[in-house]
Amino acid sequence: MTPPPGTLPRIVIVGGGAGGLELATRLGHRLGHKQAQIVLVDRNPSHLWKPRLHEVAAGLIGSGDDETNYLAHGCVHGFDFAFGSLLSIDPTAKTVKLDRVLSPADGSEILGERTLHYDTLVLALGSRVNDFGIPGVLEYCHMLDSPAQALKLQRAFLDAAIQVGAGRLDRVRVGIVGAGATGVELAAELHHAVHAMERWGGLGASGKLDITLVDMASRILPAVDPKTSSHATKVLEKLGVRILLGQSVERVTADALHLKGGKTVPCEIKVWASGVSGHDIVAKLKGLSLTPGNRIKVDDHLACIGAPDIFAMGDCAAAPAHIGNALVPPTAQVAHQQANYLAKLLERRLAGRSIGPFKYQPRGTLVSLGEGGAAGEFPTLRHSQSVFPANGTLAKLLYVSLYHMHRVALHGWLRATALFLADRLRRTTLPPVKLH
Q1: Which residues cross the membrane (predicted)?
Q2: Are 126 and 279 in contact (CB under 8 A)?
């Protein structure tokens, strides 16, 4: 797959998450088929915005309802799509090797291993939760790194609700490790979902749901202002969520979380939402400088240190935040800003021009609390280190707008608005929760 001499330079983007797909879309509009060939690589055929995985897990949306097909999107927006997982990089030959693709139906080979040439490579590989080597986590815990994992959790939660409704199970017991945004949002949405199951499906489990949230921190949402954390705590406690703080998990078994100090949290459904780490494949890639957590070290321009013509962005990149030795947080907000920055940098790079360093601009934090609204905060104009809170209904409206803005980045204002209206119409005719 090496291009013949004289053809357009090839920019390969590995990873179609929030940042990778936005970058491919922007470069496709600006450069695609004219000044450069843009190729997006991903192991999945479609994209789902990762901050919505907790809604998929709760059954409040179907993964297919909000997925963007890479082939169709690339055809419209000027980039090509290559299906497959990344196996290796050869920085000298400037190639990436892709793994074979197997049929989900019978395991037969659809595509074999392939080698793809690049002139510029962008790694947008995302991240995974960190199990910290704790026994039983990988074996017994659900995680929310992919739509497939979210659907598996949704199925387990629905099965438990059906069993409670049929009298075969006393209660639906859920243990969530990690009181960051993912864990807090999931706890709130599961409470919302079980009530919707009762109203629309007759499953009488709403009064028989036990959710326990466990974290080593002294408060939930430890990265936000204490006032914002306090508001979220009050909402969860009102929903009946049990919060255990200053507690760490020693091991996980099939029916419980076992905490250090001897405490036990009985639960059939266990979710691990604690810690962020780079994917295992990152440690096997040649020429990259890594942090202990398998994140790729980049400079002020998001260029990989010691690897010419390779950039990294999003959760997989350890980008400096210019505040002491801190790194920018692994959030969709950062990925969005980095996609905008790299689109400008790569366009100017082709024209022989330079651009200033990437500077992350915090825009605030919003965490959904189900029907109870949201908890949020935004930096003040005068002091970037101080914030003002925005909780309740207003924060919920702002939270919903985040996904709408992601759609705008992918589809433009007209189609994003049409999709928004279609969502509203669909919710008037279908149950608000999946019952299958």
Answers
A1: none
A2: yes
What's the pLDDT tens digit per position in 120-147? 999 999 999 999 999 999 999 999 999 9
Average pLDDT over residues 65-75: 91
Answer whether residue 214 shows pLDDT above 80. Answer: yes
CA dihedral 134, 127, 57, 252 (to 10 degrees): 0
Check whether residue 256 and residue 282 sit in a common domain: no
**CATH code, 142:** 3.50.50.60
SS3 label, residue 42? strand
* 400/419 Cα distance (integer angstroms): 13
Give residue 221's domain range: 132-274
Tokens of 300: 């002020």
Q: Do residue 234 and residue 294 come from a single domain?
A: no
The answer to whether residue 435 sits within a structural domain is no
pTM recorded for the entire structure? 0.91
β-pair type (95-98, 86-90): antiparallel
Could you report the per-residue pLDDT of 278-309, keeping only the tens digit for each? 898 999 998 899 998 899 999 999 999 989 99
> Which of 62, 72, 61, 65 is CA-nearest to residue 16?
72
